[in-house]
Structures are given as structure tokens and as C-alpha cells.
Design brief:
This protein has 165 residues and is of the alpha+beta class. Helix content is 28%, strand content 29%. The protein has a single domain (30-164), classed as Elongation Factor Tu (Ef-tu), domain 3 (Beta Barrel), CATH 2.40.30.
């Protein structure tokens, strides 16, 4: 069993990227703690700076590859954001990475530990024809993440409706 995950149903949902199902089963929001490490700085040049996350060996990253709407706590402040988990096929990535873009944040996070809460999966990991196409999709992902996260403030709404609208 994975530390902190006490149900095979929860683990299965996480591994499939079904974060809403996992959250419902846990009756809480799935949250991970990871340290920010140096990356290749491509996100910054694309206008979407990211914090590359490193996980402790005893607490591996469990979610399926893709883009997720998240909140991130650092230094007692909470930011909305989005996480990309995967191999970054558009740039020919060879290793798995988990990186988070904090909306409206500027500053240095290297070496800090972030608490990242996962609310919704936005989409699967994709390979784009060009960096321009990737940037266009990142703008859409950010809009979708903001819509989804705003829906969580309204308990009677279905957050997935935010993407469909």
C-alpha cells in the first residue's frame, strides 16, 4: 500500500487521473508535498514559468499524466494554478516531470516545499506541432483551470460544466 492512500479504489482512481473520483472517495482534496528543483526554464520563456517538483522516494507522484487544476500553498499564501505531469512530448522530453504554474506568482521557490491540492483533471498530455500551438493550449488550460477552481466555491455546481461552457 502507498503511504497516505488506504483504499485500492482511491489508488486506482489516482492512477487513472480520475481526481474527482479519488477526492470523493477520500472525502477530501488530494494533496501532495514536493520540493521545488531546478528545471530547463522553458516555461519561463513561453510565458508560463513553472516550479519543477521533486517527490520523496516514499511518496511517489501517483496521478496519470495530464494537466490538472490545482491550488498551491507556499509561505502561508495560496495560489491557483495548473500542473503538467508527463514527459513533455512537444519538446522531446525523456524523463517524467511534474511542474506547476502558479497564477499571479513571481519570486523564487527553489528549495521550498509546496503543498499542491488537486481539484480536477483538465486534459491528457498531448504532443503539439509547435511551441506556438503549445502556448495557445496553455492559455486555454489556464482559462479552464480558473473556471474549474471558481466552480469549487459553489457546492451545487458541477465543476466539469465549467470546461463544457
Amino acid at each position: 500500500m502507498i503511504p497516505g492512500i488506504d483504499s485500492p479504489e482511491v489508488l486506482d482512481a489516482l492512477l487513472k487521473g480520475e481526481i474527482r473520483t479519488a477526492n470523493a472517495l477520500m472525502k477530501s482534496i488530494y494533496c501532495v508535498h514536493a520540493r521545488v528543483v531546478d528545471g530547463n526554464h522553458l516555461g519561463r520563456t513561453l510565458g508560463f514559468p513553472t516550479a519543477n517538483l521533486e517527490f520523496p522516494e516514499n511518496k511517489p507522484f501517483l496521478l496519470a499524466n495530464g494537466v490538472y487544476a490545482v491550488t498551491v500553498e507556499t509561505a502561508h499564501l495560496v495560489y491557483q494554478g495548473m500542473v503538467n505531469a508527463g514527459f513533455r512530448p512537444t519538446i522531446g522530453g525523456k524523463t517524467h516531470s511534474v511542474e506547476v504554474n502558479l497564477f499571479g506568482f513571481s519570486g523564487d521557490l527553489y528549495g521550498k516545499t509546496l503543498a499542491v491540492s488537486f481539484f480536477e483533471r483538465i486534459r491528457d498530455e498531448m504532443k503539439f506541432d509547435s511551441l506556438d500551438h503549445l502556448v495557445n493550449q496553455l492559455h486555454q488550460d489556464q482559462k479552464d483551470a480558473l473556471k474549474l477552481l471558481s466552480q469549487w466555491n459553489h457546492p451545487d455546481s458541477d465543476p466539469q460544466d465549467a470546461i463544457r461552457s
